[in-house]
Amino acid sequence: MTALRRYPVLVALGLAALFMVVPFLIVAVNAVKSPAEYSQNGPLSLPHGLYLDGLKGFWQRVDYSQKLVNSVLISGSVALLATALSVLNAYAIGIGRIRGRTWVLAFFVLANLLPQEALVYPLYYLSKEAGLYDTRLSVIIVFTVIQSAFGTYLLSAVLGQFPREIIEAARIDGANKWQILVRIVVPVSRPTLGVLLVFFFIWTWNEFLLPLVMLISNDNQTVSVALGVLQGQRLMDATMTNAAALLGVLPAIVFFLVFQRTLTRGIAVGAVK
Amino acid sequence: MNVPVRPRDSYAPFLLPGALAFLAVVIVPFLMNTGVSFTDWQGVGSPHWSGLANYRELLHDSEFWASFRHSLFMVVAMAAIPTALGLVLAAALFDYVGKHFGTRIAAVLRACFYLPQVLPVAVAGIVWSWILAPDNGSLNALLKAVGLGSWQQDWLGDPDLALYTVMGVLVWVQIGFPLVVFMAGLGRVDPQLYEAAELDGAGWWRRFWHVTLPQIRPEVYVVLTWCTIAALKVFGAVYVLTKGGPGGATDVPSYFSFTTFFEKTQVGYGSAISTVLTVLILALAVLGLKLQGRAEDGDTP
Question: What is the rounded CA–CA span in Å between residue B118 and residue A22?
Answer without folding.
Answer: 16
